[in-house]
TrEMBL record:
Keywords recorded for this protein, A-Z: CBS domain, Chloride, Chloride channel, Ion channel, Ion transport, Membrane, Repeat, Transmembrane, Transmembrane helix, Transport, Voltage-gated channel
Pfam families the UniProt entry points to: CBS (PF00571), Voltage_CLC (PF00654)
Protein name as it appears in the record: Chloride channel protein
Topology with respect to the bilayer: Multi-pass membrane protein
CDD domains in the record: CBS_pair_voltage-gated_CLC_euk_bac, ClC_6_like
Amino acid sequence: MDDRSDDHDIEVEGAYHAYERKISGILDDGSVGFQQPLLARNRKNTTSQIAIVGANTCPIESLDYEIFENDLFKQDWRSRKKIEILQYTILKWALAFLIGLATGLVGFLNNLAVENIAGFKLLLTGNLMLKEKYFQAFFAFAGCNLVLATAAASLCAFIAPAAAGSGIPEVKAYLNGIDAYSILAPSTLFVKIFGSIFGVSAGFVVGKEGPMVHTGACIANLLGQGGSRKYRLTWKWLRFFKNDRDRRDLITCGAAAGVAAAFRAPVGGVLFALEEAASWWRSALLWRTFFTTAVVAVVLRSLIELCRSGRCGLFGNGGLIMFDVNSGDVLYSTPDLLAVVFIGVVGGVLGSLYNYLVDKVLRTYALINERGPWFKVMLVMAISILSSCCAFGLPWLSHCTPCPIGSEGKCPSVGRSGIYKSFQCPPNHYNDLSSLLLNTNDDAIRSLFTSRSENEFQISTLAMFFVAVYCLGIITYGIAIPSGLFIPVILAGASYGRLVGRLLGPVSQLDVGLFSLLGAASFLGGTMRMTVSLCVILLELTNNLLMLPLVMLVLLISKTVADCFNRGVYDQIVTMKGLPYMEDHAEPYMRNLVAKDVVSGPLLSFSRVEKVGVIWHALKMTSHNGFPVIDEPPFTEDSELCGIALRSHLLVLLQGKRFSKQRTTFGSEILRSCKARDFAKAGLGKGLKIDDLELSDEEMEMFVDLHPITNTSPYTVLETLSLAKAAILFRQLGLRHLCVIPKTAGRPPIVGILTRHDFMPEHVLGLYPHIDPLK
């Protein structure tokens, strides 16, 4: 056994030295192998190739959003019949319909489960409180929360760590061109759905809205790649979208459908995908996204009507997150506008502080989570106990309030769910703080937005609730459960806005419910930095168009103020997770550099007709995904750039063993024997690996023509092009590789290849530390 191991080590070492000699241009037999390394400078790109996805650290790579125009693609495009083009078009709309249908069903079942599980827990606690069994009530409440939290954490820690967190940063990164293992896998979808149900039911200050965006994207990916071979869920008739470009469009539809299902806001879902999620947009995608969200709205409306008869347990009376704000005339004067400006400024400051603290907490939790899955579960359990103690303990600090006049039969809520919790109060009294803390998050927001009575919540109650929700929302986000940020931010903002409304009651014409809505808008603008989509989502949530001017004003003010301190929460999380996100603008210092200044090396290139062994060793010894292909004598007079060949295509070509013993062109034979679908991108984890190839020594000495799989029209830029322009070009075209060519003749035909990692500040500023990042 030891001898075989030593022999294997000798073989590997010999292969590696042979590989090094081939890179130098000389093979053992004296023939020419690789091109001489082509590089401006012998520099390495040291940016991280791994990132945090959910609560899992995994390798990442880029997606091929560019149409790869090789001879096989052109042949397939020319041979397409009209019926196939029509079938493709119909299938795109059919998939949009299926995405909307499935996401709407999941959103409804998610709400149905949360309302019933959390309702049962709260009813059990309330009944024990009525019997004055306070300790039993606390242990029942905290025990139920702990069990649900442990279930959610176990799913995330042991089955799909990528499902932890909101999921919006990961979806946003995917739509920017960043792929990571299991980011949209079926296991992630499963854990996202059930983990979100358990986590929200456990009483955490989290929402199910962010996870719904990730859920919609996972559903779209599952349908787009034709199911999952691993879980034996495959549909051959859906396997038409074998490229990243079409899958990107489907996942954009899925993200919009997730927002529509979470908030019952179809137009808001489209605008969210446009403003926050998608990096590329076009009118055709707008139509399909709008159709998808319309399907979600119809599905939800139909199912809610089905539940109004009481067939859905504790769910159905309040609808699916529809907050009815006072529908009377919205009248406001100059003092009211000044109050709105004040709310916007304070909301921007508190929102930016929220983002800063969330970033610090996430970095701290990352140190704990990397210790292993059991540490993730224990952290969740600790936060669950803390949340339960706050939710059950703080109401003891609040005074009992007499029931409002006209609320007989509704106040207090005994033996059923409701907004008037008696807690420890005598008959005809309720505890206003327990009505907020010992309730579902949706019902708490509904209570804050409504204006049945101006004095329904005491000023001290609103202040305590605001501090509790603000702090609990910060320390809860980042633990290993599916958790959204929308609801915690809306809760904190609504309580803050209602508090301001109570304080300004004598001088303001706006009622406290409208102040609560404006406070929620200010916090959303201060944390997420979206304007148009948030404005529409809030208006669809509250069904009050009369508030449009004030909501627009407060969102613009809060975003402007918060931008003075830091970036939006999702942008911060993307950076913190190490995802190489390409912004839609170039950094100021990039104007002082040119493309050749950041090109990494050494660069490996292949000849048009290359020896199989040379390709195999290059794929074995490197992790590059794109290789330049050079036309050289005797096939051309001078060396010139033929194009780029992808790693995945090279692996398929080598597996097909379409080789020749002579170093001659035979691309036409490959075109006749291969189809474009043979080189289509496989689904998650299905692609070929270099270790899957079985090549004999004789085959390693044969030749293969790379021209049929080479993209002969790659995007190229001169080496003297401004790095700022190169970055904008790379981002706007959705590229994975950008070839840098020399400006003068008599040099090798390519200087290097730019990838997204070459534009990252860590790489550029690492090469030129003397550059001021702000200039």
